[in-house]
Specification:
It is built from no helices and 14 strands. It has about 160 residues and is mostly beta strands. The strands form 4 sheets. The protein has a 4-stranded antiparallel beta sheet with strand order 1-2-3-4, with no helix packed on it. A 4-stranded antiparallel beta sheet has the order 5-6-7-8, with no helix packed on it. Strand 9 and strand 10 form a beta hairpin. It is globular and about 45 Å long.
């Protein structure tokens, strides 16, 4: 590459992969049974529960502890602690088919991890402590909306 970065390709024989997230230096398929691949391409099968076809995407918290599996244009998701389902998530069905499921997991400067999503209205962000479920902000003055940028869609906070 132009910046001096060296890229190595590793080919892996595997079955269908349903979702990919980073977990440290490994790749993990949360939707497809939590299969894992290490950096050398070795697959570590941990076939557990596969999720229904309703779920086709996943996001993972910075610590790797929490994962949300969800349907890209659906209205349901599952919050997982490791591979264990903690609770079902839902979003407003209005405009669900128009933009991707608005969900993110993040980490605050004090180490607490948060879940950000729009469970009550498609245009209202809710931020909660992912471990306790305590809601920190119900979205007063914060709106989430879909925006199309060069063929991909994102959800961003606007207003204030």
């Amino acid at each position: 590459m132009a910046d001096g970065t060296v890229v190595h390709e590793i080919r892996v024989r595997t079955g269908p992969v349903l979702s990919l997230v980073w977990d440290g230096d490994d790749l993990l398929d949360p939707v497809g049974g939590r299969r894992r691949w290490s950096a050398d391409g070795t697959e570590h099968r941990r076939e557990r529960r596969r999720f229904s076809e309703v779920y086709d995407r996943a996001v993972t918290s910075p610590s790797g502890r929490w994962t949300v599996v969800y349907g890209e244009r659906g209205s349901r998701g599952l919050l997982l602690d490791g591979g264990r389902v903690v609770r079902e998530l839902s979003r407003d069905k209005d405009h669900a088919e128009d933009f991707d499921y608005p969900v993110g997991l993040g980490k605050l400067s004090d180490g607490r991890e948060v879940l950000v999503h729009c469970p009550e209205r498609y245009d209202r962000l809710q931020i909660e402590d992912v471990a306790t479920g305590n809601v920190w902000r119900r979205g007063r003055g914060r709106r989430c909306r879909a925006s199309s940028m060069r063929g991909w869609r994102s959800v961003r906070a606007v207003g204030g």
